[in-house]
């Protein structure tokens, strides 16, 4: 991949700049690069990297969306765009494994998954605990556990997705600026000036997809974002009788509400063991001081959960740490800056955004260049947080 580097103190003018090249920024830059715009992407690290929210080898994609039915049309289109990106690049970015949503019949996750599936005609099966155990022998469901089984769900490979977006963008002529820290954003109605530790940039349009650094870069918006540390765990199974049950042919991706509003999610064994992680249970942090060390207590707590709900003998293999950037309602931010319509803010976040990034990146690019959207983004507007306070 060609990465252009501007000399220090050089001024550079672009039609559009994308700030932050993770899931959504890399996608936005790719879609911008297909236009006749002179475009640039800037990142404080070298993406794909391990300092944000878009690493860890795997992300879930699914349609029986327990968070809200409003996401189902979005994710259906995201699937189309992922497949399109695969065909164009020749890379496998998505592995279909099916999906397993587990919990109590009246629990948030089961009710939400069924509502979304039934609202938009997503095919699914409904299993009781006996059916779960029979179909998925790796699992140890309680008697009251039920499941929604979705055929089309699967795994996205996040690092490969980001790399593919950036490679195609560079091939299309986009300028990529890595290891460059933005110090100030100076907006105006017809242009935006950015000062970095390497120079100045001027652009007609700016897309900000900076994830956990969004509040630092746009403090004037006073967005109610919280950043949470999230630990991912991989466990090898030394129970030889059940090892094959963890493979993708036998175990789909899973989300398990094992107690009221307490969830783990995870993936079959892709070679490094069972991947499993808590959902929305991390400590508050700032991305510049994120603790990457994982304690023995954290490992042992997750090992206990893994062995309680899976028929395995779990041996800790390794861990990783990423971040959730959360809004209070856990819905996305996709909007123009309230004062400057030449700045687009993208934070499809709260721990469930990666799967959408093939689409949300395109939407951000379309917003920047004035292409009408085919989806209602009013639920994702910035002002909703402040309207609720009035």
Q: Could you please say which CATH topology of the largest domain applies here?
A: D-Amino Acid Oxidase, Chain A, domain 2
Binned, the helix content reads: 25-40%
Beta-strand proportion = 25-35%
What is the fourth-level CATH superfamily of the largest domain? D-Amino Acid Oxidase, subunit A, domain 2
Integer tally of domains: 2
Structural class by SSE content:
alpha+beta
Envelope shape: globular
**What would CATH call the architecture of the largest domain?**
2-Layer Sandwich
Query: What does the main sheet amount to?
Result: 8 strands, mixed
> Could you give the count of β-strands?
19
What is the mean predicted local confidence, pLDDT? 96
Distance between the termini: 49 Å
Tell me, what is the CATH class of the largest domain? Alpha Beta
Number of helices: 9
Sketch the topology as an H/E string, one letter per element.
Answer: EHEEHEEHEHEEHEEEEHEEEEHEEEHH
Which consecutive residue ranges, at least 5 long each, have pLDDT under 50? 5-9
Topology record:
Layout: E1 10-19, H1 23-33, E2 39-42, E3 59-61, H2 72-89, E4 94-96, E5 99-104, H3 108-120, E6 125-127, H4 129-135, E7 145-150, E8 154-156, H5 158-171, E9 175-177, E10 182-187, E11 192-196, E12 199-208, H6 214-217, E13 226-237, E14 253-259, E15 262-267, E16 274-279, H7 296-309, E17 314-326, E18 333-336, E19 343-347, H8 357-369, H9 384-387
Parallel strand pairs: 1-2, 1-12, 2-9, 5-14, 12-19
Antiparallel strand pairs: 3-8, 4-8, 5-7, 6-7, 10-11, 11-12, 13-16, 13-17, 14-15, 15-16, 18-19
């Amino acid at each position: 991949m060609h990465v252009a580097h501007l000399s220090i103190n050089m001024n550079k003018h672009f039609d559009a700049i994308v700030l932050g090249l993770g899931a959504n920024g890399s996608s936005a830059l790719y879609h911008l690069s297909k236009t006749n715009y002179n475009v640039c992407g800037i990142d404080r690290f070298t993406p794909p990297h391990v300092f944000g929210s878009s690493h860890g080898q795997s992300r879930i994609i699914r349609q029986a969306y327990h968070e809200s039915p409003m996401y189902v049309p979005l994710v259906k289109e995201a699937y189309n765009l992922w497949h399109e990106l695969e065909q164009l690049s020749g890379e496998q970015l998505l592995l279909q494994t099916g999906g397993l949503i587990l919990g109590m019949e009246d629990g948030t996750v089961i009710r939400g998954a069924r509502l979304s599936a039934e609202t938009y005609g997503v095919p699914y099966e409904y299993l009781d605990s006996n059916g779960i155990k029979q179909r998925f022998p790796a699992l140890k469901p309680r008697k009251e556990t039920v499941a929604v089984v979705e055929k089309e769900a699967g795994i996205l490979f996040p690092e490969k997705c980001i790399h593919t977006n950036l490679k195609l963008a560079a091939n299309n002529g986009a300028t990529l600026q890595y290891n460059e820290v933005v110090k100030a954003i100076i907006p105006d109605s017809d242009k935006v000036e950015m000062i970095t530790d390497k120079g100045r940039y001027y652009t007609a349009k700016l897309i900000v997809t900076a994830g956990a650094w969004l509040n630092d870069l746009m403090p004037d918006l006073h967005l109610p974002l919280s950043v949470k540390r999230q630990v991912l765990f991989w466990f090898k199974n030394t129970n030889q009788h059940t090892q094959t049950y963890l493979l993708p042919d036998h175990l789909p991706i899973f989300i398990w509400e094992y107690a009221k509003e307490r969830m783990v999610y995870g993936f079959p064994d892709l070679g490094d063991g069972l991947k499993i992680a808590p959902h929305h249970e991390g400590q508050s942090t700032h991305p510049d001081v994120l603790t990457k060390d994982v304690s023995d207590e954290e490992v042992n707590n997750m090992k206990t959960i893994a062995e309680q709900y899976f028929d395995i003998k779990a041996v800790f293999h390794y861990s990783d740490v990423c971040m959730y950037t959360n809004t209070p309602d856990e819905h996305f931010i996709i909007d123009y800056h309230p004062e400057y319509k030449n700045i687009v803010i993208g934070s499809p976040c709260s721990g469930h955004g990666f799967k959408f990034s093939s689409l949300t990146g395109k939407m951000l690019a379309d917003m920047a260049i004035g292409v009408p959207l085919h989806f209602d983004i009013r639920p994702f507007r910035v002002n909703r947080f402040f309207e609720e306070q009035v």
